[in-house]
Please model this.
Amino acid sequence: MAIRVTVQYFTLLKRTIGTGKEEYELEEGETVADLWIKILKKFGAEMEKGGYIDAVTKEPKSIIIAMSRIGVLGLRHVGLYDGLKTELKDGDLIAMYPPVMGG
Amino acid sequence: MYGWAGTILTIDLSKEQIIKEPLDMDTAEKFLGSDGIGVKLLWERVPAGTPPLDPANIICFGSGPLTGTFCPNSGKMSSVFKSPTTGLIGVSTAGGFFGPELKEAGYDLIVLMGKAKKPVWIWIDDDDVEIRDAAHMWGKTAWEAIDIIHEEVGDVPTITIGPAGENQMFGAFCLVMRSRALGGVGSGAVMGSKNVKAIGVRGTKGVQVYRPDEFMKKCKEAKDKIMSHPVYAGFARYGTPQWSPVLIAQGVVPVRNFQEGVFPEGEEFLDPETPCKEVFVKSDACEGCVIHCGHWCEVRSGPYKGTKTEGLEWYAEYMFGPYIGCTDWGFVTKASVECNNLGIGFGAAGMIAWLMELYQRGIISKKDVDGLELTWGNQEAALEVLRKMAYREGIGDILAQGWEKAAEELGGKDFQPLITRLITTECPRARMDVALSHIVSVRGGDHNKALPYFAWICPPEYIHKNWPDWPKETPDIYNPIGKPEIVDWIEDWKCVNDSLTVCYWSTSVTMPGGTNPTDYAELLTYATGVEYDEKKLLEAGRRIAVLERAFNVREGWGRDVYQLSPMFTDRAFPRGSQAGVKADMKVINEMVDKFLERKGFDSKTGYPRKETLEQLGLDFAIKQLRKLGRIID
Model:
């Protein structure tokens, strides 16, 4: 069964790739890593030029991938814990941005 | 004298005396500067139980041993007093140019004590200090008062209060220059209670450093660290509004007084690119800052077209945006200018959102609020409430007395978004880092004293490498494990930041891998000639943090002061990723207990342990606390 997730890009990353928000259709069971591959196909060159991905591994570097969701383990911060292995669910909102501070 | 200026300037307003005292070097070494020396003076000079607006309260404005030097981001200042907003210790910091100018005039701190018989302002021109008549500027807005001062003595850095401060409104702030503020906890009301409208300073003496060559080399190294950090570029372009993605991703945007955590109608408003397009003109920096997170702003279209200000930042964005259901940067700019002119802290302005919720729920009606239509997003009504608060008219007079009194008059106490007596913009329901850092904050529950920003933007390996004793769960913001450890550390380090004084946007509070305690220990050693290392510097931070908490205990606040509003424990966001989540006080109280014990305080009473004070050289506090029965022997 297909699921749909929303990816929102912010601040300098948004400027680098020229897109603020898009939706992706994925297969059930696909992870943030699978999503990342799809994103790389579209924006890999721009992200590499902007220094947002590791030139060798193509993994995200200097990008926070943030998603909060209530689950059996409580809320988890994807960028820090389950990371790219996190399985996506229909309706998830994934935010991507360079490290930010404020408040 | 190196690093420090060497003089504390005390102005006894009641006796119209100006007293210059040499800075005690033992105090300077142990309490560093501004915040630290200020809290020691507060302890020594203000009798226990003094009401915040009594002439016996003092207010200190200070710089630190790195202020006015080439140390990057060292242009800040802070103020210390007993707060009329919370009854707790009042500690506020501000950027701008006042702190460095004060230092260059030859003073580490100014202490205002007593009460002037009539409105006055203080003019400091290097060694010459005058108490001048302020009858001609009393009743004026802060910006009008600044214009008058500039007319009289030239374009100098100022601290002023607006009508809100004059009228001792509970959350009035001191405005530093035109748009920086010693905000949050009522510094302006204390100034007003002393009949002091303003302070202006001109300093031409410079600051001496002990080992200039090594100091300059280290400054360059620190500057390079800050400017090559991945946080830097976004900060430089967007300033603090770049924070929004974090709250969007976590589903905790404080919408309509925290009724919602998502704000779809405000998606464009919250995009940090939007203020760049709509109001930002160019970047601006405090003295010595390499980040330049501030901006010159001008509203380009709409009803507030032409409104100008500087320094517009995240707190204003949220208080005049989602908090009250608005999505207009022109309005945010206008409301900020009003707050600056009237001298109202943005936190106190958060009362508007509370009023709007009471109005929505029918707890109050038009007749209770002078006929105002307090519907969500009503910009004109919001501006009118601000004006009424400053001049204490009608509903404004009720609000100006503070959260507690206003709830007694209007009802709706359970809808006040307070943590430990202070308004919050961060949601403590699920985020354990927010819940603990806010609830134990000595100045009341906001983000300024101990929020561990860096915990969740850096790889866990960074934390594990630097703090191997901390639990591996520390970076997980939704897990209580590790939070007492990190909040304890951050609180000490933040006290160092506020005492040196360096901006915590540039230090490892917020920049993992950025400038760290070792860097500042070296800078301090080179600047002052007094040897510091990381351990000694952090111990000074701990000494300050413990004395601040002990001050609150002395003033009557024990373990029961650490509280969350029922709006966080009894209600939840209806949608978004945190839908249904309520704050769990059992979990939070366990964290608070552990934090207090780590800090050397008894978790049952909240009182300090005698050995904690002894170990930190705070023996002078023991006698008073023992007399009051608020110490654990």
Summary: Chain B touches chain A through 49 residues (CB under 8 Å). The mean pLDDT of chain B is 95.
